[in-house]
Design brief:
heterodimer, A: alpha+beta, Peroxisomal Thiolase, Chain A, domain 1, 10 strands, globular, B: Peroxisomal Thiolase, Chain A, domain 1, 10-stranded mixed sheet, 11 helices
Chain lengths: 254, 384
């Protein structure tokens, strides 16, 4: 069975876009609060304004990817799953929740904020908004650009345990007191992957070969940005140009 | 839409271990469960004065590990019972909050320095201690985390991408988590009573389990027999609410149907269900509705371990799988501690005493925030 990347959505600390504007994707360090606050889901999602910034960014990138893929955005139930990779996930919300708790000797616990101390909460929100009833979970890895979430997604598709999968990664730009590393870029980046039989157009064929290596457009990719590299290269008619941004750890280019 | 594919993954469970408030081994936990004991007691670790409950199933004498987090010790204690873990095993950790106690103590920094010790660091640390060839991943699917982890491990083996997968699941009772569940008003002041008509909410617990999965080919080549076999699985989303389950049970029913489909069996193949059974009004009602949707009036047993072990969050599914392995070995189902007057759909199926396990498979289910549902079907390792 053949699978194709049919949609791309992204958000950084300052902007958002789809596959058509992939060339503008450039993660910068900082908080999502600016871009995420300006984004308005269409159709509206009543809970959106109550979500934390990193969840809003992941939510927005998934919605943009779904729109780019031409998916039904009505919220009607559909067999679509979501897998996201993150390293820092909900760290800032953990901190904010705990500060509220400790500042008021236990009485400051906010139930709504507590829900977002799970990195998978944003997956649940966007599943509600778009009616996705397939597998939904978060993979936490030190290398947030790892291809494991993509491998899991393609296995689920091969087994027909979902009709389509949305897969990608998000991370927050860490601020004090959690600036463990000098510069941590904020980004959310998701793709829609569907059966080639279901869609005629797309950004290219994606597959996991027997040795567990991932190929996009017949060329091996080494991390999630590798897929974006090739989409950007195709749109600009040049060789891949996305350099390893800031402090990202990328798999070695063997 | 039903999307199950008829396959029998035949993933072997070759080693299991568990550490819970009832005991430092799976055998001790099992003995406590069969006696009807509960590990739910007054919390001494932090002040519960501001909260809706005073109780949880904490593990006595669980001290912080080298990193400063208790979760490291908990995982070490669990892994102590396993031997000969293959170095090429793919490590899947399943924890919702991992070393969250470090935030309370040290702002997520390790006790040994200024380096952060976050969930991915915990996975890497486990991998390093075991000498595994890959750093490992953590799966976060709220309270279904370890069941999803087991399913992903099963998929890796069934698709021949891995010969061995080690699933390690663990979560702690911390003030961080306790306060959140208290604020959500779903903590019970008394030990939880899953599926009981008078249930008032859940009790938190802490615990860990380790499950080694192997392909039959690899296990046979090493002369290893299965303790149990994972035959089917399913994961679904409710797409309904962030912190409450879909009352109709539609999402869980879909996961169970998918699990039956992947196992290639019908509802009559299920002898017993190790349910999520948290003791909250909504969860237990939703589960019984889902089971009724799939199994109608067929005869099958239901039990929950949470009245004895508390709700161990991301570790729940792994601990419950370990308990099901013991159930096959001992050919009985433990009582559902705390349940004396089951809901109507549970009458004749849920017992406050141990009951013989009929021939057939065990279905284990978990659900979590975000509307995630996961189901696995296992059969005895002695089955033909």
């Amino acid at each position: 069975m053949t699978f194709v990347v049919t949609g791309l959505g992204w958000m950084t600390a300052v902007a958002w876009g789809t596959g058509k504007t992939a060339a503008a994707f450039q993660p910068v360090s900082g908080s999502f609060s600016d871009a995420a606050t300006r984004f308005r889901p269409a159709p509206p999602y009543p809970r959106f304004n109550r979500m934390d910034a990193v969840s809003k960014a992941a939510f927005a990138a998934v919605v943009l990817a779904a729109k780019d893929a031409g998916m039904d955005l009505s919220g009607r139930k559909k067999s679509v799953g979501i897998i996201a990779t993150t390293r820092f996930g909900c760290l800032e919300t953990d901190s904010a929740y705990f500060q509220g708790l400790s500042s008021r000797e236990g009485t400051g616990a906010r139930p709504h904020q507590f829900a977002y101390t799970l990195p998978s909460a944003c997956i649940g929100d966007v599943a509600i908004h778009l009616g996705f009833t397939g597998p939904g979970f978060v993979v936490q890895e030190k290398n947030a650009l790892s291809l494991n979430s993509l491998r899991f997604s393609l296995e689920i598709l091969h087994r027909k345990e979902a009709v389509s999968m949305v897969v990608g990664a998000y991370d927050t730009g860490l601020l004090a007191p959690f600036a463990f590393e000098k510069k941590t870029p904020a980004y959310a980046l998701f793709w829609v992957i569907e059966s080639a039989a279901a869609r005629k157009k797309g950004y290219g064929k994606i597959e996991v070969r027997k040795n567990d290596h991932v190929y996009f457009r017949q060329k091996r990719v080494y991390d999630l940005f590798g897929i974006l590299d090739r989409i950007r290269a195709a749109s600009k008619g040049s060789t891949p140009s996305l350099l390893p941004p800031l402090s990202f750890t990328r798999e070695p280019m063997k | 839409m039903e999307t199950g594919k008829k396959i029998n993954p035949g993933v072997w469970v070759t080693q299991v271990s568990a550490v819970t408030a009832l005991g430092s081994t799976l055998d001790a936990t099992w003995q406590g469960l069969i006696k009807g004991d509960t590990g739910i007691r007054e919390v001494k670790r932090f002040s519960t004065a501001p909260y809706a409950s005073r109780i949880a199933a904490c593990i006595d004498g669980l001290n912080p590990g080298k990193s400063g987090s208790r979760i490291e010790s908990l995982i070490d204690n669990t892994l102590d019972a396993l031997t000969g873990i293959p170095k090429d095993a793919f490590l899947i950790l399943a924890t919702t909050k991992g070393p969250i106690d470090l935030l309370e103590e040290n702002g997520f920094r390790s006790a040994t320095g200024t380096e952060p010790f976050l969930i991915p660091d915990l996975a890497e640390s486990v991998s390093r201690k075991l000498g595994l060839s890959t750093p490992g991943v953590n799966i976060n699917a709220a309270c279904a985390s370890s069941t999803v982890a087991l399913i992903l491990g099963g998929m890796r083996i069934a698709s021949e991408k891995a010969d061995a997968v080690l699933v390690v699941c663990a979560d702690l009772v911390t003030e961080f988590v306790f306060s959140g569940f208290s604020a959500l008003q779903i903590l019970s002041a008394n030990p939880c009573a899953p599926f009981d008509r008078k249930r008032k909410g859940l009790s938190l617990g802490e615990g860990a389990a380790a499950v080694l999965l192997m392909s039959p080919r690899r296990a046979r080549s090493q002369g290893i027999s299965p303790l149990a076999v994972i035959r089917g699985w399913g994961i679904s989303g409710d797409a309904a609410h962030i912190v409450s389950p879909d009352r109709s049970g539609t999402g869980l029913a879909r996961a169970v149907k998918q699990a039956l489909s992947t196992a290639g069996i019908g509802p009559e193949g299920i002898a017993a269900i190790n349910a999520h059974g948290t003791g909250t009004v909504q969860n237990d009602r939703m589960e019984l509705a889902a089971f009724h949707t799939v199994f109608k009036d067929r005869a099958f047993l239901i039990h929950s371990v949470k009245g004895a072990l508390g709700h161990t969050l991301g570790a729940a599914g792994g601990i419950e799988l370990a308990v099901s392995v013991k159930a096959f070995q001992e050919k009985q189902i433990p009582p559902t501690a705390g349940c004396t007057d089951p809901e109507p759909l549970g009458k004749g199926r849920i017992f406050s005493r141990p009951v013989p396990l009929p021939k057939g498979c065990v279905l284990s289910t978990n659900s979590g925030f975000g509307g995630v549902n996961a189901a696995v079907i296992i059969e005895s390792g002695e089955a033909p």
